[in-house]
Amino acid sequence: MDKSASCFLLMAHASNVDTDLVRVHIDDVAGDIPPELLSGESDGGIAQSGLEHKWSAPASDNDSMALLPPSQEAKPQPESKQRVIDGQVSIEQHLNIYIEDLMSIAANDRVMDDVTEMTLSDVLAGIDYVFQNRIMHKLPHLDAKCCDQLLGALLHTTGESEEGWTSRPKVTKHAEMALRILMEFAAEVQEFQDALHSRNVSELRTSLKLHRHLRSDDDNYRASVARFLVLLKGLAKFSNWKDLVRSWSHDI
After folding, report:
1. In the list 19, 153, 229, 248, which could disulfide-bond 241, CB 3.0-4.6 Å?
2. Which residues of the chain form beta strands (DSSP E)?
3. How far apart are CA 177 and CA 174, in angstroms?
4. pTM for this structure?
């Protein structure tokens, strides 16, 4: 028996704990504990090794070490679900504010501050920031109502076209940004896909105006729109991508 095990036995004697029980417990676990942790000579210590929960024992009323049988040994606690829920609620609250801003700007009835005017670019940039830093690869699920409202707000902008008459109008930079955000949410968040699937095909075709987005001079952007159509094929209602694009643009 090494000196660390002996120390445990001495502590058990001092606390009137059954030494046979302690001996069994030591034999059970000693082989799994790195020697440097038992001796206290590890550079990082138990706290950095991730074993602090597994091998810690609660203190008794007299502050002496209370060794527990293996069946009652303290186990590591999983990450708090409440923290995850609180984080998701915070994200949804941010999105709801941006949704209100988008709808107000679309209705052109928002009274702006004389000093700091909230522009459409600001709002879209804010949504994109929340997605890139707090949702992407982290939250595959969000509140269904929030996703449906976000989709509706984005659809007010995705079809925005450049001013001036032309036989082949193109969408604005705001419309491109709104569609990028829409595509990102559709690729990551299940409830956003559900919101898309709940929409009428003709409504999406009219609001998205994908035929105009496909006229972009940016090859990478056109490719991302094409990938979005492939993604939508996974939803039964949109299995035929041509239903979402004007018929005269199917050869783009």
Report:
1. 229
2. none
3. 5
4. 0.64
